[in-house]
């Protein structure tokens, strides 16, 4: 029996809601990493789990870690598919 997979997807933006291209999105527990597109979009195929810890990083910005929970319809990281990485203060 094969494990079920699901897709975690979203968009990485800065504090001005501008897309961040080439940001790193990773789920270390599953050894999965993606790089955002020119529009800040990412997609990761993951093994079924109730939740995963997702790390968002970008040069010059503070790294963010969020928990993504699988719902009946889709995976929704921290309440939305769009994750912001804010500049450290």
TrEMBL record:
InterPro entries for this protein: CarboxyPept-like_regulatory
Cited Pfam families: CarbopepD_reg_2
Keywords: Receptor
Region named Disordered: 69-89
Protein name: TonB-dependent receptor domain protein
Protein's organism: human gut metagenome
């Amino acid at each position: 029996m094969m494990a079920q997979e699901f897709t975690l997807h979203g968009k990485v933006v800065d504090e001005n809601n501008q897309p961040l291209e080439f940001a790193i999105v990773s789920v270390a527990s599953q050894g999965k990493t993606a790089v955002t597109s020119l529009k800040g979009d990412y997609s990761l195929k993951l093994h079924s789990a109730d939740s995963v810890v997702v790390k968002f990083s970008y040069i010059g910005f503070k790294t963010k870690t969020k928990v993504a929970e699988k719902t009946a319809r889709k995976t929704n990281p921290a309440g939305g598919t769009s994750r912001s990485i804010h500049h450290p203060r």
